[in-house]
């Protein structure tokens, strides 16, 4: 995926994750960063469990990124950042 694809992908995944974690609403930049970090975290989690991680711009990858972003936001809430 190209740079612009990662930004769009991060924005979508970050926005969906913040909708699940209602306390963490933020702006576009926060959603993009959350989604990109979530894609990385979700990829690590799913590959550790034996599934494929982020494979491109598709529904599976968005699912993986959203799960990773939710995990990331939960850890941030626990650490109170």
Write the layout of secondary structure elements.
Blueprint: H1 3-20, H2 28-48, H3 59-79
Structural overview:
- The protein is mainly alpha-helical.
- It has one domain (3-79).
- It has three helices and no strands.
- Helix 1 (3-20) crosses helix 2 (28-48), helix 1 crosses helix 3 (59-79) and helix 2 crosses helix 3 (59-79).
- The N and C termini lie far apart (30 Å).
Task: Tell me briefly what this model is.
By secondary structure, this protein is mainly α. It has one domain (3-79). The longest helix is centred in the middle third of the chain and has 21 residues, at 28-48.
Total number of domains: 1
Outline: globular
Strand segment tally:
0
Tell me the radius of gyration.
Answer: 12 Å
Strand count, sense and closure of the main sheet? none
Helix content percent band = over 70%
Output the number of helix runs: 3
- Low-pLDDT residue intervals, each spanning 5 or more residues: none
Give the rounded overall mean pLDDT: 84
Alpha-carbon distance between the termini? 30 Å
Q: Could you state the order of secondary-structure elements as H and E? A: HHH
Structural category is mainly alpha
How much of the residues is beta strand, in percent?
Answer: under 5%
């Amino acid at each position: 995926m190209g740079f612009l694809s990662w930004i769009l992908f991060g924005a979508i995944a970050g926005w969906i994750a913040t909708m699940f974690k209602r306390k963490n609403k933020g702006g576009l930049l926060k959603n993009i960063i959350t989604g990109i970090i979530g894609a990385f975290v979700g990829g690590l989690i799913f590959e550790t469990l034996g599934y494929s991680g982020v494979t491109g711009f598709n529904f599976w990858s968005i699912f993986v990124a959203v799960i990773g972003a939710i995990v990331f936001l939960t850890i941030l809430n626990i650490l109170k950042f």
